[in-house]
Each structure stands twice: as C-alpha cells, then as structure tokens.
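Readers of this paper often ask what the protein records in our data store actually look like. Such a record has a labelled line for the sequence and another for the backbone structure tokens. The tokens are whole numbers drawn from a learned vocabulary of local backbone shapes. We quote a single record here, exactly as it is kept in our systems:
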Amino acid sequence: MCYRCLKPTTETIKGIIEATYVYGHENDTMKKEKELESLENVIYYVGSEIDLFERVIEALITAIPQRFLCDENCKGLCPFCGEDLNENPNHTCEPAETFEEESVFSKLSVLKENLKDESDKN
C-alpha cells in the first residue's frame, strides 16, 4: 500500500544472503582456523541439507523499504478532505473552521475530561 495515497502497490524485493556455511560443529577446533575467524557470518551445519529459511527472512527484512510508494512523485491525499491529489492535481480545499481551531490533541483533552468525570463519580 502506498504510504502517501493508500493505493495498492507492488514492489520487487531482492535480498542478499551474506553467510559462509561450514560443514561441522562450531566446537570443532580444527575448523576454527585464522581464515574462519576473519569471516563475520560463519554458520556451521551438519548433514546433507542446509536450512536457508532464517537467512532468506533476514535478507528480505533488510531489503524491504521503510515506505512503499506507488510512484516516486506521488502527491498523496489532501490532509483535510482525503481527495487523491494524483487524480485531481488542481484540488484546493478550504479547511473547515473546526480544523483550524482544533489542536492535534483536542480529542485527547476531551477524553481526559471524560475519564476525570468518570473517576469523580466513583
């Protein structure tokens, strides 16, 4: 979903798995030579299969952008009425007086007063 206009969007995500897989147990002292100590992400495995599930998840998580956009130049939504500014670029919205007068926290103030009144009744 686009961060600005809330339209469904798709994104191709490519992650990189950065690990060196070494056959054997981590406790094997023969494997812990100086060349392995210089590597940052050494993963030891035993058997004939390597489970890549966690590495794939890590690679995808680090590759996902913080915000998806439908287009680099997405104009988003009007903050007062919600009109899509991509579909109607000449949109002008006169904010209602209630928008101008209300503070961001005015709803919280009302809630606080209501909670205070409730506690006074008890």
